[in-house]
């Protein structure tokens, strides 16, 4: 029936559209710290010694992560960097601050893999008349994420992008799913949400009245799937699955 058709698809980002895999967070942080430190040093900023710089940022992120867990929202990494920099008397333009943010994201970006036919899949979904969007829990600023998506050639597929640091709530809070439905201008019942986590993606989407697809990955290995969850191995399966749902076959 028409009121049961899928008219929009909203994707999670990490380990869904962008596959990071299991990462060594300590190694990533060290590499990112070194990149950002060298950028600031080359920009003649009073960064001091590297170890002190690295530990200062590490403690700041841990503190922000603690409060994020306490209050159920995400912080804006760019604003945190600016606050830290202002205390240290850095003098950077807005564009330079965005470059620093990208330095911190760069090591994770370099690990990213996407499906080889991702652009073809997204084109097929768009050509089928489906609206496409992104809803991601993240503290990484849009200046870094959108640049990455642009470099991959997929940014324009997603005019609707919601990054949780922009809001006072995050997945699985039903409010952020409702916000996504409003922004993509589609009733929740006509939206398919695609993610990699049962607790944050599938459960949140289903509670919001959306359909949910779970992509098989290490983040949900051994986890029980709620009834009605669509299980996929690859995003490339979606065009055919949605076609069957919408045709009632």
What is the string of helix and strand elements? EHHHHHEHEHEHEEH
Number of helices: 9
Q: If classified by CATH, what would the architecture of the largest domain be?
A: 3-Layer(aba) Sandwich
Rounded mean pLDDT is 94
Number of strands: 6
- Helical fraction: 40-55%
Shape: elongated
Main beta-sheet annotation: 6 strands, parallel
Query: Strand percentage, roughly?
Result: 5-15%
Q: Kindly give the count of domains.
A: 2
* Unreliable stretches: none
CATH class of the largest domain: Alpha Beta
CATH fold-level label of the largest domain: Rossmann fold
Oligomer: single chain
Q: Report Rg.
A: 19 Å
Task: Describe the structure using short key phrases.
6 strands, 249 residues, single chain, alpha/beta, Rossmann fold, 9 helices, 6-stranded parallel beta sheet
3D structure, described in words:
The chain has helices at 25-42, 50-71, 77-87, 94-111, 118-127, 142-152, 174-183, 198-207, 238-247, and strands spanning 8-11, 131-136, 160-163, 191-195, 211-215, 230-232. It is of the alpha/beta class. The chain folds into two domains: 2-20 and 112-247, Rossmann fold (3-Layer(aba) Sandwich); 25-111. Strands 3-2-1-4-5-6 form a six-stranded parallel β-sheet, with helices on both faces. β4, α8 and β5 form a beta-alpha-beta unit. α4 (94-111) crosses α6 (142-152). The longest helix is centred in the first third of the chain and has 22 residues, at 50-71. The model has no long low-confidence stretch (mean pLDDT 94).
């Amino acid at each position: 029936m028409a009121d049961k058709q899928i008219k929009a698809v909203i994707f999670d980002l990490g380990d869904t559209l962008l596959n990071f895999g299991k990462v060594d967070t300590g190694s990533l942080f060290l590499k990112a710290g070194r990149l950002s430190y060298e950028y600031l040093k080359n920009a003649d900023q009073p960064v001091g010694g590297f170890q002190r710089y690295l530990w200062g940022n590490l403690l700041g992120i841990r503190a922000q992560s603690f409060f994020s867990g306490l209050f159920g929202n995400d912080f804006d990494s760019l604003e945190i960097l600016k606050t830290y920099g202002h205390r240290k008397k850095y003098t950077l333009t807005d564009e330079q601050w965005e470059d620093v943010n990208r330095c911190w994201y760069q090591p994770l970006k370099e690990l990213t893999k996407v499906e080889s036919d991702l652009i073809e899949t997204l084109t097929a979904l768009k050509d089928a008349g489906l609206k496409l969007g992104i809803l991601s829990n993240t503290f990484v600023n849009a200046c870094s994420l959108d640049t990455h998506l642009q470099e991959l050639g997929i940014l324009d597929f997603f005019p609707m992008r919601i990054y949780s640091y922009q809001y006072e709530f995050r997945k699985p809070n039903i409010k952020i799913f409702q916000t996504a439905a409003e922004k993509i201008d589609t009733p929740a019942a006509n939206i398919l949400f695609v993610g990699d986590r049962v607790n944050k993606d599938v459960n949140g989407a289903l509670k919001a009245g959306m359909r949910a697809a779970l992509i098989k990955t290490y983040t949900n290995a051994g986890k029980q799937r709620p009834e009605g969850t669509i299980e996929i191995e690859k995003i490339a399966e979606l065009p055919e699955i949605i076609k069957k749902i919408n045709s009632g076959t």
